[in-house]
């Protein structure tokens, strides 16, 4: 997120609008969905998110880290190991994701 985007976010007063500005980015909900089943490494995330570029995945993970939704654990091993998981704040999004799935299932037909 650049400075102009951050300024727009600060000018936004509606909590729902703020949440959508953080979660509405392409791939963001998919990343959270993947991490909702447990800790994953970068390669695991990239493999499960067909079509995401490493640059985009890295940028989304950094943004989610900045928002305290995802935590990054670096293990000083050879080779280095990095794992991503949801924070408590991130875990609280699981119910919202399930509600979105339920709403989509009930209200959106596949031919729409």
UniProtKB/TrEMBL annotation:
Domain HTH hxlR-type: 14-112
Pfam families assigned to the protein according to its UniProt record, in alphabetical order: HxlR (PF01638)
MF GO annotations: DNA binding
Domain of life: Bacteria
CDD domains in alphabetical order: HTH_ARSR
Keyword entries, A-Z: DNA-binding, Transcription, Transcription regulation
Protein name per UniProt: Transcriptional regulator, HxlR family
Organism: Desulforamulus aeronauticus DSM 10349
